[in-house]
Amino acid sequence: MPGSGFVDTVSSFGTWGGAYTSTTAQVANVYGAMPSMHTGWSLWVAVCLCAISTRWWQRVLAVSLPVVTVLVIMATGNHYALDAMAGALYLVVAFLLWLLVLAVRRALGHVDLPTIVPSASARALLTSAGRLL
């Protein structure tokens, strides 16, 4: 969107690994930003952090991650709002497919996947960390 005030930060300031080097430029699709997995990943992290958080302010910080991510990717011109919405939708669809897989497994008589139980030392570490926070 020329003239809109957006700056291509990668072309202006560079990046780790050189996104526009001759090798990368041959395979990079700078217009293929749909869906924004910046949004999808940050939303997934927020969901996981909210699930394990014990304090309200931890959940506020977790929810702020995808909000800030969307603001940054749009402010830097890396994604449009539609890209961000598609990234969030991608996460929702993936989660629903996972629930479908679990339902089919149960219907076929398969046992649920094992639950991971932390060891005593991990529980002690998590408990002491929780007291600090």
Automatic annotation (TrEMBL):
Superkingdom assignment: Bacteria
Transmembrane segments: 30-53, 60-81, 87-104
Keywords from the named record: Membrane, Transmembrane, Transmembrane helix
Residue ranges of coiled coil: none
Topological category with respect to the lipid bilayer: Multi-pass membrane protein
Keyword presence, Transmembrane: yes
Main location: membrane
Annotated ranges, domain Inositolphosphotransferase Aur1/Ipt1: 2-97
Gene Ontology CC annotations of this record: membrane
A Pfam family recorded for this sequence: PAP2_3
Protein name: CAZy families GT87 protein
InterPro entries: Aur1/Ipt1, IPC_Synthase-Related
Keyword hit for Lipid metabolism: no
Subcellular location: Membrane
